[in-house]
Amino acid sequence: MVASENGAPEVPRSAALRLNMLWTLAGNLVFAATQWGVLVVLARLGSPADLGRYTLGLAITTPMFLLLSLQLRGAQATEPAGSAYRFGHYFTLRTVLSLGALLLCAVYALISSTALAPVVLWLGLAKLFDSVSDVCYGHLQARHGLREVSQSLILRGLLSVLLLGAAYALTRQVSWAAAGTALGYLLGLALFDVPHTRRGTGPWWLPERATLLRLARLTWPLGVAVGLIALNASLPRYFLGRERGLNAVGLFTAMSYVTVAGSMVVTALGQAATTPLARLAEATDLGPFRALLGRLLLAGSGLGVLGVLGAAALGRPLLGGLYGAGYAQDVPVFTLLMGAAGVSYAASFAGFGMTSLRQFRAQIPLFTATSGVLLLGCFLLIPASGLMGAAWATLFSAVTQLLGSLWVVWLELQRRQAGRAPVRGAG
After folding, report:
1. pLDDT attached to residue 153
2. What is the pLDDT, as a whole number, of residue 12?
């Protein structure tokens, strides 16, 4: 076995990739289960309206923070050797932008006279702590430290659901439940993320204006793309809240969140494969890149098929057992949502392929089109069909994302292959 620079034996690439995937899968699944637990706590102890209030608060805060995140973690994980950007640049830029997002949440809380205002403010604070953790994750991921990332996710998830559950059980107030989430994220950041990221980072605060502006110009398309993705998840809730009320938002969110279990598997595999894909994309032979991405796309499609079959056969007892009988009345909607999720799983893997190819700007028109399709679907279908209309709009958007992502990846691979092809007759 070959020794690494520090004298420790290197794990073979295939074994290391499998180990990272397993750790990332475990961390993401546990974190997803805890966030699912949040919904179960609010559904069991409260009402669909309380669940709708909490998830609507997430729908307001999440797009703002993701838009201003510039998806810096993806850029960190695919950073080429010899880059001028250091961890301190990423940390400084992400912190400044996240504070800007928190300011937007505070502005909303000040001008809003509804009971949603304190929920938005507390969830905005939780997102700020989450953003700092995420830039730590980017550093660890680039150095194959996905085990530490997974351990952090498990710790933060457990802390947040326990503190949220305790706060809501004691007060029956959604705002205090959101405060419990924020406290859980803060504790995870302070107790685990910061101590485990200190090694090898250099200075954390590098307010070098010119460098930060160059980094922002490089990554802003990723921020727009991921912000649009978050907006896509929120658009059906906005329309349902306006047309059918908070109960409909709660029902739709409860059914939609079942699909997150599959999303966590996809995210785990994709995050573990992003750095290897980026390295394969730099090679002369792009065949291994195509093979790995193809396996990921096949895995996403298979997971989607299993989800649809499971929803059709077990949807009623599953929803009733998780949330209560009132949530088990819309199995056809649930099955259609699982179908849309299956398409989105494959689209997510294609998105990891785009990022590994550093196709940042191409994602803006892609996700603009995806959001446009979803917006049109919600506008036309939800007023007349309610939950079913929201599910159809979600499916149409997922199909648009998948086809567009595959097109971007194919075009870039064709370009790279043409640039590396030997010239006939040379020599």
Report:
1. 92
2. 40
Instruction: Give yes or no for a contact between 308 and 335, defined as CB atoms under 8 angstroms apart.
Output: yes
Contact assessment for residue 38 and residue 233, using Cβ atoms and an 8 Å cutoff = no
Among 41, 34, 38, 57, residue whose Cα is nearest residue 105? 57
Beta-strand runs (E) in 106-155: none
CA angle 366, 370, 372 (to 5 degrees): 115
Tokens of 5: 């620079």
Residue 3's DSSP bridge partners are 9
pTM over 0.70: no
SS (H, E, C) 122-134: HHHHHHHHHHHHH
Report how far apart, in Å, the C-alpha atoms of 130 and of each of 134, 137, 183, 282, 394 are: 6, 10, 11, 32, 26
Check residue 184 and give its pLDDT. 95
Residues 95-139: tens digit of each pLDDT = 999 999 999 988 888 887 677 889 999 999 999 999 999 989 888
Give percent of the chain with pLDDT exceeding 90. 29
Q: Which residue has the tokens 């890149």?
A: 289
Quote the CA–CA distance of 195 and 133 in Å, as a whole number. Answer: 11
| C-alpha span between 174 and 158 (Å, rounded) | 18
Q: Cα 25 to chain center, whole Å?
A: 14
Q: Which residue has the higher pLDDT, 182 or 311?
A: 182
Confidence of residue 3 (pLDDT cuts 50, 70, 90): very low
Query: Cβ(227)–Cβ(63) under 8 Å?
Result: yes
* Interatomic CA distance for residues 263 and 44, integer angstroms: 24
Distance CA 92, CA 216 (A): 11
| 23 CB-side CA count, 13 A | 19
Q: Which long-range contacts (C-beta less than 8 Å, at least 24 apart) are formed by 214-217?
A: 215/72, 215/75, 215/85, 215/89, 215/90, 215/93, 216/70, 216/93
The answer to whether the CB of 79 falls within 8 A of the CB of 219 is no
Three-class secondary structure of residue 3 per DSSP: strand
Crossing angle (nearest 10°) for helices 287-323 and 331-356? 150
Using only C-alpha atoms, the chain has a radius of gyration, in whole angstroms, of 22
- What are 9's strand-pairing partners? 3
Instruction: Read off the pLDDT of residues 249-259 as tens digits, 9 standing for 90 and up.
Output: 878 878 887 77
